[in-house]
Design goal:
- With 467 residues, the chain is of the alpha/beta class.
- The protein folds into three domains: 59 residues, Up-down Bundle (Four Helix Bundle (Hemerythrin (Met), subunit A)); 195 residues, 3-Layer(aba) Sandwich (Rossmann fold); 190 residues, Orthogonal Bundle (434 Repressor (Amino-terminal Domain)), CATH 1.10.260.30.
- An eight-stranded mixed β-sheet has the order 3-2-4-1-5-6-7-8, sandwiched between helices.
- Helix 6 links the parallel strand 2 and strand 3.
- Helix 1 packs antiparallel against helix 2, helix 4 crosses helix 11 and helix 21 runs antiparallel to helix 23.
- It is globular and about 75 Å long.
- The chain starts with a helix and ends with a helix.
- 36% of the residues are buried.
């Protein structure tokens, strides 16, 4: 039990949860977990994980919706430090509100940062949203906000979004300016835009802004990077302010509603399958996917179909981002270091592009001479072409078997085969490069790792055959 809670604390700290928050959380969960309910459980480890997961959800729970008025105009004040993505987030929020039937107007009240007004105008044009702005040399931020609200009312806008100034750090001048806007304009909602990758600094800045303005909500940005989102837990615990949205990319459509249960799984390294499914539903061609699934079940899945699937997957974002949403794959991503899954996908696509239509439909016909031609055309080693064909054959059988599996079993099977290097034509070449840089002790470890991967892959195949 004690060892398990140490691992939980380590997972929280690795996810950038503030130290004090992690300590307090582990202490509270330990008191809850050590008791009759856990000791009588058939699987105490699972029970503890469940308690920890629910504890995180409870801590991050709150009203995650915007207080939009059913009649009249809602004024939203955006604040945050410079570099947190505040202006871009204003555009993302404007797009989201417009799509929901609340036509917004953006107000350029950041008169401190050079080109901030022009940036907001460009974003407004991309979103299709009007932007109110004045000459920064002749204007006062408070008056700009008041004039912007009047202009929005005249234009029948349902929401006004005030893009206020930020600083590189928290200072008295910044807070006084924001407090003047808050008292003179009286916004309905004050949102703090926070960079999730700043770790402990995110907590300190959120606390300072909340003390000065009494925040109504937080928007976490840059959650598409390597961070696991511990800032969400820290900010919520320290300020008591609910997280409203998370930014998961630079594009203006990459703002998502915050879900405590999904973030809890992400913080613990358990993935976020629901978000992945939602993204897939938005991006994938449903008819095409159904047709390919039918082909898989009938054993007629070709390399051409596989290439189409890869192109669909690319629409979801980077492979690292996708893999982190899958339970158990977070550690695999961390172990990859500088290796880039996109490079492997490009190599595979290049190999398939170098084949004829007949070869893509009937890979069994690819003999040695054809492999040489395909390798030359795609600029890879012939061994990589050979590995791709072997892996595709194994994958075809796996996909046929997986048609009758549940989601959890499918993911286990895919992970075990991925650990064994399935559909990774550059793996052998990378191993050769690694060998040239490693000593005898390192090579022994590498051989043991490879041996274990092969065993795991064989076990996965046997389980699939039995099912």
């Amino acid at each position: 039990m004690r060892e398990g809670m140490k691992q939980v604390r380590t997972a929280l700290l690795e996810a950038d949860v503030a130290y004090d928050v992690a300590q307090d959380f582990v202490k509270r969960i330990t008191e809850e977990a050590v008791g009759e309910r856990v000791l009588k459980s058939l699987r105490p480890d699972q029970q503890v994980v469940g308690i920890v997961h629910q504890g995180l959800i409870d801590l991050m729970a709150g009203d995650h919706n915007l207080p939009l008025k059913t009649e009249g105009m809602t004024i939203i004040m955006m604040c945050g430090l410079q570099g947190s993505g505040k202006t871009t987030t204003c555009g993302k929020l404007a797009r989201l509100l417009k799509d929901k039937g609340f036509p917004p107007m953006l107000v350029a009240a950041d008169l401190q940062r050079p080109a901030a007004i022009e940036q907001l105008k460009v974003i407004g044009e991309q979103v299709g949203c009007p932007v109110y702005a004045e000459d920064p040399g002749k204007s006062d931020p408070v008056q700009v906000c008041r004039n912007g609200v009047k202009q929005a009312a005249a234009a029948n806008a349902r929401v006004v979004i005030l893009d206020t100034a930020g600083r590189l750090g928290i200072d008295e001048e910044l807070m006084q300016e924001l407090q003047r806007i808050d008292s003179r304009v009286n916004p309905d909602c004050c949102l703090f835009v926070c960079d999730a990758m700043t770790g402990q600094d995110a907590v300190n800045s959120a606390r300072a802004f909340n003390e000065a303005l009494e925040l109504d909500g937080v928007i976490l940005t840059k959650l598409d990077g390597d961070t696991r989102g511990g800032a969400a837990l820290s900010v919520r615990a320290v300020t008591g302010v609910p997280i409203k949205f998370i930014g998961v990319g630079e594009q203006l459509d990459r703002l998502e509603q915050f879900h405590p249960d999904r973030m809890a799984g992400r913080i613990l390294g358990m993935g976020d399958v629901l978000s992945l499914v939602e993204k897939a539903q938005q991006e994938f061609d449903e008819q095409e996917m159904l047709a390919q699934q039918e082909k898989m079940q009938q054993g007629r899945f070709t390399l051409d179909d596989f290439r189409k699937q890869m192109r669909q997957i690319k629409k979801l974002g980077s492979m690292r981002e996708i893999m982190k949403m899958i339970p158990g794959m977070g550690k695999v991503v961390d172990q990859m270091g500088d290796l880039n899954p996109e490079d492997d996908m490009k190599r595979i696509e290049g190999i398939i592009d170098s084949m004829t239509l007949d070869e893509r439909e009937n890979p069994d016909r690819i003999d040695r001479s054809r492999r040489m031609r395909i390798a030359k055309g795609s600029g890879v080693d012939p061994a990589e072409v050979n590995k791709l064909l072997k892996d595709f054959q194994s994958m075809g059988k796996l996909m046929q078997d997986m048609s009758g599996m549940g989601l959890r079993d499918r993911m286990k099977a895919v992970k075990q085969l991925a650990d064994g290097g399935l559909m990774n034509p550059g793996a052998e070449l990378r191993d050769k490069k690694l060998r040239s840089k490693r000593g005898p002790a390192d090579m022994d470890l590498l051989r043991e790792k490879k041996k274990k991967q092969r065993k795991d892959a064989k076990k996965a195949k046997k389980r699939n055959r039995r099912k």
